[in-house]
Amino acid sequence: MRGPAYLDMNPTFAISDLGRIAYVEAYARQAETLEMVVAARGSAEPVGARVLLVEHDPVITVTRRPGAVDHLLASRELLASMGVALEETDRGGDITYHGPGQLVVYPIVDLNLLNLGLHDYMRLLEEVVIRTLARFGVGAGREAGATGVWVPGSVRGRGEAAKVCAMGVRVRKWV
To answer: For an engineered disulfide with 138, which of 21, 41, 67, 133 has Cβ 3.0 to 4.6 Å away?
Structure first.
């Protein structure tokens, strides 16, 4: 399957594996990286992307959107007693659990440098996940009208597709 042309571009980028760290520490690294990418604009060596790979300590992130916290089913006290942090976040989406054994990928991409709009960027992220899963022999695809990546129902044995990749994105200064 052939994806969008920008998948074949070779922008300047680097991948950093941060290991297992708390969400707040990973967020601070994202903010620092964003500022570095913005500062490199217009320089002799602009930065196309930096990718941070993380495994989080148990955490539930909740967006700042009105009503999102109402979707939390456990109390803050119960989560704390189980060692699960609760953190507010400024990305899209609603409520998301991250924890040990789960790969979280934070691409920090200069959308201006790659001439990408937000819709194209989201489709690019999905395509990267689909292609990566294919390399491991896992068939995956998109669901009409939804953001993310799904695997066929036969994987779970119930006939329904299972979401394998959720996406929450925050754009600042077109990064």
So the answer is: 133
Tokens of 66: 């009105």
What is the dihedral sign for C-alpha 153, 155, 156, 161? Answer: negative
Average pLDDT over residues 11-28: 89
Look at residue 5 and give its three-state secondary structure.
helix
Per the structure block, which two tokens stand in for 76?
């803050």
The more confidently predicted of residues 1 and 101 is 101
CA 116 to chain centre: 17
Question: Could you tell me which of 13, 25, 92 has the C-alpha nearest to residue 54?
Answer: 25
Q: pTM, whole model, 2 decimals? A: 0.83
**Dist CA 33 CA 37 (whole Å):** 6
3-state secondary structure 95-118: EEEECCCCCEEEEEECCCCCCCCH
Residue 75 backbone zone (phi > 0: left; psi -120 to 50: alpha; other: beta): beta
Share of the chain above pLDDT 70, in %: 90
